[in-house]
Design goal:
Keywords (chains A, B): Oxidoreductase
Domain GFO/IDH/MocA-like oxidoreductase (chains A, B): 123-239
Enzyme class (chains A, B): oxidoreductase
Catalytic activity (chains A, B): D-xylose + NADP(+) = D-xylono-1,5-lactone + NADPH + H(+)
Oligomer: homodimer
Organism (chains A, B): Arcella intermedia
Low-confidence stretches of chain A: none
Largest interface: A-B, 38 and 38 residues
CATH topology of the largest domain in chain A: Dihydrodipicolinate Reductase, domain 2
Shape of chain A: globular
């Protein structure tokens, strides 16, 4: 659903996902859909999203529209009996996220928020190393994501298009801290600072306080390239997911009583692919996870659970309110 | 004044500071002072601080006592007409810091808060590179200082001794952000999160929001070794002061349109010295700065000014109040 840049990258990655079968695509007009379909060899191309969700050969829909349309498109697909994978953020606020999950439950359909980083083997290695206790009790995690976005990127700089840095890139460090440090717990307190300019949030920072003296820090920025690193510190060492954190290929594990080791997870090849974003081939891991879930008859993923997704939506609400961020549709 | 660990390190560094002359030392009892004096070859050793400040050969007093005594010792020295260099933090709260400066002004005496990092050539290089504009407009700075302190270090773990991580190590990142990013400006807003256990602050984090979309983040921790790094990001590149930030020897400058370069500033030798803390020989730069100021007849230093010192004290008050930190003497 949608034939934009991220959807194109997702489709390339789907091509190397064993067992995945791309049967249809849809854009707001038929011409765009046909162009996209031709490029990717997709049989059914539709000029409206409604047509796509009425196609009985479609089993699960990937929603790659801009943030402000995720809600509408998710409801449309669910109401037509389709399982969905929704790009992050699932909604632009907690209420939207909640309603999408509610409808999916009612319809007994699968829904997952597309936080693809969580399925990247480098991230999985970091998480399993943490869980194994190799760095002791985790007490601190800090993740940065900042990009000096050119001024012509409408999805970032246009408030009407749901622009801003928090929901586009800030959500990555937030999910990371929640999964690697928070470990299912709700933060005791969130404290955020940030800047709003021209109706969009241009830069921000937040700290998350968890039980047992755990502190998480996330930084996001649309002005400058922050070193895109995740640093997780425990009582017995540290783990660093090396840049680019959101689609990483290496992690360095440094137990204080052992040898520092860097683990490389090279991304697979995808012949002839033309990518819009960095390391997008890693979408294949997310797609495979959705496929496995569906084949197993699951209605939610075990990593990006409904609870985590809603907790992240809660925290985003809190941050938005603290930095004074509202989207035009929320005013 | 005091013959403890930090004073010992300071005295070793003074020995290689050209023109510095150590005439006297004092401890709470004569035996300790004599032992310290013998070790360091100091002619006058006193069993009380009052005797030291009455010694007419003493020109400037270094106050190396634990935080909770800085105030009392500073007033004692100033009231006896001595210039002072007070270890950081100058006081345990804003009121103490203010009163010390007030008395120094009344007595026309020199006073400086001993934030020695600011005089380290590596730090000076970072600051001058920032000021030269090599990384464009600075928008983000983040500095961490965390040490897995052994439980037998009373100065950290005893509330009665002014224990806690913020005033002991958190003040370093705070000063760094204020000097490298804040550049004399007062933060628009400070947001802090932290933990208090057994009456002391064990871990914390704070963000500082400055005009012109500048965000600073500081992290301090008494449980875990945080990578002790300063990262300063501008619109045209970044600068990293490599560990250990508080007494560094190298800085990496990475302009986005140029070549990354690491500058090394090896510390001088100090024959026969036995150090208590990492890279303490760098105290020599701070001592030299005080000496130059005094020879020039100045009453305050141009880097660690009264204004900066009071601003830092203000921010510390704000953080303390947000994380619920109070020293026994403040309750």
């Amino acid at each position: 659903m949608t034939c934009g840049k991220v959807s194109s990258d997702f489709v390339w990655a789907l091509k190397i996902t064993t067992g995945a079968n791309i049967v249809a695509c849809a854009a707001r007009n038929l011409e765009d859909a046909k162009k996209f379909g031709q490029k990717h060899g997709i049989p059914n191309c539709y000029g409206s999203y409604k047509e796509l969700v009425q196609d009985s050969s479609v089993h699960v829909v990937y929603i790659g529209s801009i943030h402000v349309h995720h809600f509408e498109h998710s409801l449309l697909a669910l109401n037509h009996g389709k399982h969905i994978l929704v790009e992050k953020p699932m909604g632009i606020n907690r209420k939207q996220t909640e309603q999408i999950y509610k409808l999916a439950t009612e319809k007994n359909l699968y829904v997952m928020e597309g936080m693809w980083t969580a399925f990247n083997p480098t991230f999985v290695k970091a998480k399993s190393a943490i869980d194994s206790g190799v760095i002791g009790e985790v007490k601190f995690a800090e993740i940065n994501f900042g990009v000096a976005f050119p001024k012509d990127i409408a999805r970032i700089w246009e408030p009407q298009l749901g622009g801003g840095a928090l929901l586009d890139i800030g959500i990555y460090p937030l999910y990371g801290v929640q999964l690697l440090l928070g470990n299912g717990d709700k933060p005791i307190e969130v404290k955020a600072n940030g800047f709003i300019e021209g109706g969009i949030d241009v830069a921000g920072t937040a700290s998350l306080k968890y039980p047992n003296n755990r502190l998480g820090v996330i930084n996001w920025n649309a002005f400058v390239d922050l070193p895109e690193t995740a640093t997780i510190v425990g009582t017995k060492g540290k783990i660093v997911i090396n840049p680019p954190y959101h689609a990483p290929t290496s992690v360095t594990i440094s137990p204080s009583d052992g040898k520092e080791e860097t683990f490389q997870f090279p991304l697979p090849d995808c012949p002839n692919a033309t990518w819009n974003f960095t390391n997008s081939v890693a979408f294949t891991y997310e797609a495979a996870a959705v496929q496995q879930d569906l084949l197993a008859g699951k209605k939610e993923n075990s990593t990006i659970t409904k609870l985590t997704s809603q907790l992240v939506a809660d925290i985003l609400e809190d941050i938005k309110s603290q930095i004074g961020l509202k989207y035009p549709s929320e005013i």
